[in-house]
Design brief:
Elements lengths: L5 E2 L9 H10 L18 H18 L5 E6 L2 H13 L5 E6 L2 H10 L4 E7 L20 E7 L1 E2 L4 E2 L9 E5 L14 E7 L10 E6 L16 H6 L9 H16 L2 H21 L6 E2 L10 E5 L3 H13 L2 E2 L10 E4 L6 H17 L3
Parallel strand pairs: 1-13, 3-4, 3-5, 5-8, 8-9
Antiparallel strand pairs: 2-10, 6-7, 9-10, 11-12, 12-14
Helix pairs in contact: 1-6, 2-6, 3-4, 7-9
The chain binds pyridoxal-5'-phosphate.
C-alpha cells in the first residue's frame, strides 16, 4: 500500500487504512458467509447484527444517554436542514439559529419555510472568521431550540464551548462528530453526514431525544418523520447498508485507538503542528479563522496572492499532499485533518510548507 498518498479532502474524506483493507475483504465475502456485505438483505441476521453493533458502539463511545434514539438516515446532512424544523417546529413557533457559515445559512433558509427564525449572532460580515462566545447573544423566551454548526468546515472555525442556555441545543456536527467528548444530554438533536469523520457518503447519523419524536405534525410525509425511523430501528425501508457497515468499522477503529479522548488528543496534536507552522511563518501563511475560533478539523489559510496559492496547491499535489484547495466560496487553501487523518501527513505538510516558503519568497 505504498502508493497511497496523503488525502486532505474536506469530504468525502480519508478513512483508516485498516478499515479499507477489512472492507476490501468483506465486500467480496463477508465473514465467510459466501456473499459480500453490499449484496446482503438488510433483514438478514448478519446485517442486522452489523447495524446493531454499530449503534451499540456509537452509544458507548459517545456516551449517549438511554433516552436518545440513534438513527441511520439517507438524504445527506442537508436533508436535516428541513427535517429538523419540519418535525420540531410547530406552526407559529420560533427557533434561534447562529449564523456561522454556509452550512448554517442553508439550514436557516430551510427553517424559514416552517417557522419564525431569529438569528442572534452572525459573523457573515466578518467573512465567517469566527464563532461567538457565550454572552455575545441572547435568545427570545419563546424560542424552541438553539441551532448551531459545531465545526464550520469551509472557514475552519469551531465552537470550543457550546451555548450555555436552558434551551435545547440542536447541532450539525457533520465535520467534527466523535472528534471530542460532547455532553449529548444537553442536545435535543445531533446530526452528521458520515462522509467527513465517520465513514463514506450515504448515511446520516441522527441522535434524537425520545420525547421529541412525538412533536411532529401528522401531515408530514412518513419518510420525513423521525418517529417512523425510530420505531423501526432505521429499517422502515432499505437503509444505506454498506455505509452503515463502514461506520461500524470506523467506530471499532476509534475504540481500538483508545476511544474519543485519545482521538481528541491526537487531533489537538495534529492541528497544533499546523497552526504552529502558520504562526511561525511571519505572515507568509495567514490563517482564516480568528485564534479563539480555530478548528481542529479544517485549517483554512491563505498565501500572499491567488497565484502563489495555485502554485502551492499544485506543488503540494505533486509531493503527494492531495486535496488542499480551499472551498470555492473563500478560495485559498484548506487542510482537512479529520479523525482518520494520520499525523505523518501533517508532519509532511508542515515540512512542505517550510520548503515552499524558502523557495518562493513573498
Ligand atoms: C459537508 C457538510 C454538510 C453537507 O453534507 P451533505 O451530506 O452533503 O448534505 C452539512 N453541514 C456541514 C457542517 C458539513 O461539513
Amino acid at each position: 500500500m505504498t502508493d497511497r498518498i496523503f488525502n486532505f479532502s474536506p469530504g468525502p474524506a480519508v478513512l483508516p487504512l485498516e478499515v479499507l483493507e477489512r472492507a476490501a475483504i468483506d465486500i467480496v465475502n463477508f465473514q465467510n458467509t459466501g456473499i459480500g456485505i453490499a449484496e446482503m438483505s438488510h433483514r438478514s441476521k448478519d446485517f442486522m447484527k452489523v447495524a446493531e453493533d454499530a449503534e451499540k458502539l456509537l452509544r458507548e463511545l459517545y456516551e449517549i444517554p438511554d433516552n436518545y434514539k440513534v438513527l441511520f438516515l439517507q438524504g445527506g446532512a442537508s436533508s436535516q436542514f428541513f427535517m429538523i424544523p419540519m418535525n420540531l417546529l410547530a406552526p407559529g413557533k420560533k427557533a434561534s439559529y447562529l449564523n456561522t457559515g454556509v452550512w448554517s445559512k442553508k439550514s436557516i433558509k430551510e427553517a424559514k419555510l416552517f417557522g419564525e427564525i431569529e438569528i442572534p449572532f452572525s459573523s457573515e460580515e466578518q467573512k465567517f472568521k469566527r464563532v461567538p462566545v457565550n454572552g455575545e447573544y441572547t435568545f427570545s423566551q419563546e424560542s424552541e431550540y438553539v441551532y448551531f454548526v459545531t465545526n464550520n468546515t469551509i472557514y475552519g472555525t469551531q465552537f470550543k464551548e457550546f451555548p450555555k442556555t436552558e434551551k435545547m441545543l440542536v447541532s450539525d456536527m457533520s465535520s467534527d462528530i466523535l472528534s471530542r467528548k460532547v455532553d449529548v444530554g444537553k442536545f435535543g438533536l445531533i446530526f452528521a453526514g458520515a462522509q467527513k469523520n465517520l465513514g463514506p457518503a450515504g448515511v446520516t447519523i441522527v441522535i434524537i431525544r425520545e420525547d421529541l419524536l412525538d412533536r411532529a405534525p401528522d401531515n408530514i410525509p412518513t419518510m420525513l418523520k423521525y418517529k417512523t425511523h425510530a420505531e423501526k430501528d432505521s429499517m422502515f425501508n432499505t437503509p444505506p447498508c454498506f455505509s452503515i457497515y463502514i461506520v461500524g468499522e470506523v467506530l471499532k477503529w476509534i475504540k481500538k485507538s483508545g476511544g474519543i479522548e485519545a482521538i481528541d488528543r491526537a487531533n489537538q496534536e495534529k492541528a497544533g503542528l499546523l497552526y504552529a507552522a502558520i504562526d511561525a511563518s511571519s505572515g507568509y501563511y495567514r490563517g482564516h479563522a480568528e485564534l479563539a475560533s480555530r478548528s481542529l478539523m479544517n485549517i483554512s489559510f491563505n498565501l500572499a496572492t491567488p497565484e502563489l496559492e495555485t502554485k502551492f496547491i499544485a506543488e503540494a499535489t505533486k509531493a503527494g499532499l492531495n486535496g488542499l484547495k480551499g472551498h470555492r466560496s473563500i478560495g485559498g487553501c484548506r487542510a482537512s485533518i479529520y479523525n482518520a487523518f494520520p499525523k505523518e501527513g501533517v508532519v509532511k505538510l508542515v515540512q512542505f510548507m517550510k520548503e515552499f516558503m524558502a523557495g518562493n519568497p513573498a
